[in-house]
Amino acid sequence: MTNPAVLTSLSDIEPLAEYELQLKQIMQLEPTQVSQAEKSQRLLTVLNFLHQHHQQHCQHYQNICVVNQQQQPAASLEALPFLAVRLFKQLELLSIESEQVFKVLQSSGTTSQTAARVFLDKDTSSRQSKTLVNILQRTIGKQRLPMLIIDSPNIVKDPKFSARAAGIQGLAFFGRDHRYALDDNMQPNWPVIEEFVSKYAEQPVLIFGFTFMLWAYFIQVLQQQNKQLNLLQAIVLHSGGWKKLEEQKVDNVTFKAQIKHIIGSTKVHNFYGMAEQVGTIFVECSQGHLHAPLLADVIVRNPYDMSVCDIGQQGIIQVLSALPTSYPGFSLLTEDMGRITTIDTCPCGQKGKTIAIDGRLPQTEVRGCSDTQSGAVT
Q1: How many angstroms separate the CA atoms of 179 and 182, rounded?
Q2: Topology annotation, domain 129-272
Q3: What is the structure's pLDDT at 223?
């Protein structure tokens, strides 16, 4: 069991270096042994540093804190200021000089919507990549597996670095011998699929697709054509909104049952994340719960008065991430509705909070990686 007494305090001397030390200390912990109370204590120190850091380096963030009288360090995670995630569509929120921008992530959106823009420097991008590796290796292991991507290769060739392309490229790191299952017309590329299955049917493989696209462009099409892949050892990762699937009366149980029937795999893991907080994803465990990782947390707020909801009470999801120093995205109020489902009591053994995502806020436009492909199979 870890000892909260060994926490390193952040001082005014080389604060970024001490911030990095804090992150390193947290990442060395074993998630199954870190209680929510200890995690909250550790994260609060880091997030208060980010709160001060972004006030000093981002004028927009400083103005918001001044108007809301939230300049001082918070006494708890729940007391931290938060930004509405849609502000990234309306403002250029960055805490670095323009010449330090290494990459700009752009959230997916329809032609009528303004896309969110997230500005990364090399340090933030590296921090996010390393954290993503640490999280996913706990689910898929350290060995890179042959990878089937349920999308078209054109998506990563687009000069606009969309969240969908970023998601694919980020996950591609965990695979090898990458194959794209869909052609340029978003139809199954049968020669590619059949070659992949023939080559790797007897060993573990990694399959990744955004939730709706995996269902509409792959699982449903294979079902309609009475095809099965027989990839019994596949690990299937998927992410994205369930809105369109819910309209088709497809829930998580149905989704997994169909994947087992068509692909043969029982290892299916959803994960929750967003372009505005790349790296700190919430991965579904064997018990079907989405877990907040070590360097992130979640709060659910009542949509009418922003008070903190109790376990099981539905509200708006607020996500916290200890990673971003190049932009003020460490505390964001999303446009997703959900619930805290457990705290330190998930049957899988991992402590901390788990969440369930219930859908989008009413009258909120669809955004996200998997809902942006038009002309879906229904």
Answers
A1: 9
A2: Rossmann fold (3.40.50)
A3: 93
